[in-house]
Structure formats: C-alpha cells, structure tokens
Amino acid sequence: MDARDDLLKLENQLCFALVTAARNVVAVYRPILEPLGLTHPQYLVMLALWERAPRALGELADELAMEPATLSPLVKRLETQALVTRTRSTADERVLEIGLTEVGEALRARALDVPAQVLAATGMTVDQAAAVRDGLTPFAGRRAH
User: Fold this and answer.
1) What residues pair up with 85 in beta bridges, in sequence order?
2) Of the given ranges (1-5, 35-39, 123-127), which has the lowest mean pLDDT?
3) Residue 103 CA, distance from chain mean position
4) What's the CA gap between 133 and 140, in Å, rounded?
5) pLDDT for position 95
6) Does an H or E element contain 51, and which?
7) How is residue 52 annotated by DSSP?
8) Checking phi first, is residue 65 left (phi over 0); if not, alpha (psi -120 to 50) or beta?
9) CA 59 from chain center: how many Å?
10) Over the stretch 72-124, which tens digit does the pLDDT of each residue have?
11) CB of 32 within 8 A of CB of 114?
C-alpha cells in the first residue's frame, strides 16, 4: 500500500465527516427544539421568517437552500401549528407569501435561548462555533452569516 491508499480510508473522507456531523448536529438540536414544538427544518424556516416576513415561498426556499416542493409541506405544518400564514400575493396570485402569526412572532422570545443551549450541549464557545460554521463556507454554496 502506498500513501495514496490512506486517502481512501473512511476516517479520512471529508464527505463522511460532514454527513456524520450534520446528523449529530440535528440530534443536538432535537431535544432543545422539542419544547418549542419545532423540528430542525421548521426551526430554520422560523429563523428566516423572524429575520423578515412576509416573504414569497420561492424566496424563502432560496434562502434556506431548499426546493420549494420540499419547503411547502414544512410551511403547511407550521400553518397547522398556527405559527405562519400562507396567502396569495395581491400583486401576483402565483406567488405564495409566508408570514408570521402572533403566535409565531411570540415563539421567537422562547427561541432566544436555543443558541446558548446548543453551545452548552456541545461544549463549544461562540468563537469555536463560528470557526466551524465559517470553515464550512466552501461547501455551503453561499457565504454563511
């Protein structure tokens, strides 16, 4: 075996490390988000809407790097939970606008503790978490905030 054989070891694969890390990150968030009644994907939708709402479904899908067909059922479930509204744009009825209800807006206050709980669960500092996030930028398709 030459040195190139080490490149094919599972433990040396970037893709394996990223997939494993992604699965584990979602597992860290699960018990933290459960009291809020949110799954991890739903939490991401709410984060985007807390930044700016209402917004078109397509725009929200772009922001979240999701397909509209994948996002739509998530939004419908959030609507069932009375967290968001789905309405047709008056300017263009083809556009579905996603907004926040009062309940959805109020949930933001309860979500303020989520980042600190995630850091506590992982034992990371804010700077360490930012370094990991920023290190993933080449794989994220766009600049992380």
Assistant:
1) 99
2) 1-5
3) 20
4) 9
5) 87
6) helix 40-51
7) S
8) left
9) 15
10) 999 999 999 999 999 998 888 888 999 999 999 999 999 999 999 999 999 99
11) yes
